[in-house]
Write the C-alpha cells for this entry.
Amino acid sequence: MLSPLAALPLDEARRNSEAITRALRALRCADPEGGGCLYESAHDLPDWRKAYWGASSSRLETIKTRYDPHGLFRVRHGVGTAERSLDHTSARLTLARPTGKFHA
C-alpha cells in the first residue's frame, strides 16, 4: 500500500504516523460522535463505518445498493464496502463473502 509517508526515512515515517494517531485519538476524545476522514482511509481503524459515515451509514448503504447494485463504484472504506476486502497484492477490491451479485 502506498502512503504519503512512504518517501520518508522509516524512523521519521513511524514518528509521523504515531503523531497522527495521537492527534486522531485526541479528536475522538473531544467529540466521540464526530466523523471525518483523512485523504487516505486508515486501514487499521476498527470502526471505520462509524468514524467516516456516522449515523448516516445505514441510509447511505441502502442508497448505494439501490443505485449501484453490482458494486461497480467502490473504494476501500467506502459506502457499501462492508462485504468487500482489499487484496493488497493486486489492489483489487473483492467480495469478502460471495453473494452472486458482484464480480471483481
Remarks:
- Strands lie at 84-87, 92-95.
- The longest helix spans residues 10-30.
- The mean pLDDT is 71.
